[in-house]
Automatic annotation (TrEMBL):
Source organism: Roseibium aggregatum
Database matches in InterPro entries: CHP02096, NTF2-like_dom_sf, SnoaL-like
Protein name stated in the entry: Putative ester cyclase
Domain of life assignment: Bacteria
Pfam families on file: SnoaL_2
Amino acid sequence: MANKQSRFLIDTYFAAFNAGDTKKMESLVADDLIHDVNQGERRVGKDKFWSFNVHMTRCYKERLSDIVLFVSEDGTRAAAEFIVHGSYIGTDSGLPPANGQTYKLPAGSFFEIRNGQIARITTYYNLQDWIDQVTEGAGEKVPEEA
């Protein structure tokens, strides 16, 4: 049963992500959430997850497709592979200027689940691939849907 509950939890998290419902996402994580951001520092606590979501909403509009989810039998761990379809809408510090460039790249996330909540999220993608895509599109405004 724990496997099914954890699968539902992660499916709900991804559905909230795709809906842009950061409040719902935040309701699914533990107060002491560990959030390992690709190419970034570890953030601990729901408040830092909230800050991260505010930042991401300012700079990016993303949706995920082709999500393949794996959940351990005991429901304490999960992993997902997916495709990120995004628009770079606000310049992020230390990255190329944003002007609505679109991108599409494979990514993955790992989850730890504790007491019916997400206790850790670790996400990976190829940052250089992303930089190459938004740099190639830097001279023109690309339609939002990829």
